[in-house]
Amino acid sequence: MTEEVPELRASDTDRERVAEVLREAVAEGRLDMEEFEERLDATYKARTYGELAPITRDLPVAGVTPPSPVSMVKQPEGSGDWAGRIVGGEGSSQAGVAIMSGFERKGRWTVPKRFTAVAFMGGGTIDLREADFADREVVINCVAIMGGIEVIVPPGVEVDVRGIGIMGGFDHLSEYVPGDPGAPRVIVTGFAFWGGVSAERKLTRAERQRIKEQRRQEKLERKAGRQGEQGELEELEGRSSASSAHRDALDQARSIHRDAMEQHRELMRQHREEREDRRRARQDERDERRRRWDRE
After folding, report:
1. Residue 112 in this model has a pLDDT that exceeds 90
2. Which among 94, 139, 142 is positioned nearest to 118, based on CA atoms?
């Protein structure tokens, strides 16, 4: 279809769709950083569909095989994509367990009607931002004992937190937000003992990247408008987008490392406090026996 409209002008949204395919390709190892930067530069300089189509012709779309290039043909917008994400079935994973370790469920997976998460002196992350759902209402039962579990949901999903914290924390969302029409409902229940369970809404990495790049582009456009040099704007956009993708990748790696180290330090602190409590209890018991002997 793209051959029929090769000279049709491409929009910012069209260029962003191609850029997202390139990011997925470099994350999967299909492109090295040099190829990625070259193609990303060509993407933001492209003016028509005919210039965009060859950039992803040899790449799969979102990991699907057999490969096919990104379609540049406008499709009618539906009322939302939630209906396509409620797929039925049993779910691709039923539970996550972390015993002095960690577990993670993220990316494209299917949440069952009931998912059980257990963290004992460990940590777990349940990320629903790119997940499919077995039913319109799913229950995530969390048990955190001297550990932590984080539930991440995308905007538009209704969340009902019902858990209990005992000498620990079961964080409820700060305010109730109704879900989008057709969106699933997520119930987070269970208990936390000397541990913590949190539920939080976050944008996907791709959406955050899109917003950042959009803001950068707007800033560049304002600067170019003041200077009156459109050619310079296009060059700056290409360089800014390529370097931004690299910086964001480094920032994400640093953030993951910081979170892991913080979780490890917290677990070690809790472990030390527990040992100190046991030591004091044994000392108190010895002191009590010594007092009884002295009285006798």
Report:
1. yes
2. 142
